[in-house]
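User: Look at the shape:
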Amino acid sequence: MYKLVCQDGCKLGARPIDQHIKGFEALGATVDVGQGNITAHADKLVGTSIYMDMVSVGATINVMIASVLAEGTTIIDNAAKEPHVVDVANFLNAMGADIRGAGTDVIKINGVEKLSSNVTYSVVPDQIEAGTFMLACVASRGDLVIKNCITKHLECITAKVIEMGAHAEETNGDTIHVWCDEKTSKANIKTSPYPGFPTDLQSQMGVVLALSDGTSIINESIWESRFQYTDELNKMGAKITAQGKSAVFEGVDELYGAPVYATDLRAGAALIIAGVCANGVTEIYNLEHIDRGYENIEEKFKNIGANIERVSIDD
């Protein structure tokens, strides 16, 4: 018997788990939902064909993991293709699983009897962190070399950066050089599952658009509450009108320091970028959101020239 214990993440809107439950039940598990608990149990799991009604990274990974030791073959159709889905599959295969097709729409898992625990594995670099620093460089009109990344995972970001008039060159597939020496031009963005523009870089791109020439539009197709950060940027002098899952950015020449609050993880990263670019002092609160997704982020920004410091609220 297994119990799923869920912890609150960012408040971005509804987080349905119906596709997770659908996958577990299709494999033969009984799932009980009630009194704040989700309990799944099964004497055994049996492979089957599962069609995901929507592309879901979490559901794809959960069903893939559950299928590894199931009897027979499981096929996941309309699977998520994100790099970390592929990474989980590669890790499981290193342990003795038989997973094929990760990174495509269809994943096939042939059940095995056991997995090996004697495995050493290097986790894939985080394309969202690399993309955050790419956009920080563009927003601040800087010059930055980002190493130990997988440049193919950043192609949608690279394409937009170049479209807006900045520069990006990759080297050997694991290094990208980004620089920007003039105000960027307007752009329209629509978030979508990989390999489209990631929702987790939408807020950071919003800072770039707030400082770009002309009128830009972001359409958010994943989360209904992803534009909470725009109110905070407006406190800093941005001109953003957000309604529902769309936002219009009227470019301004500069931002000004202000006390602002990180409403979620990526919004916090966006506010750091805005603070680095702004005139005056910016104070960012609710750092616990940022710390969920970035390790020592202030030190990394400090290492590339930002004047940033983490202080106690009592200081």
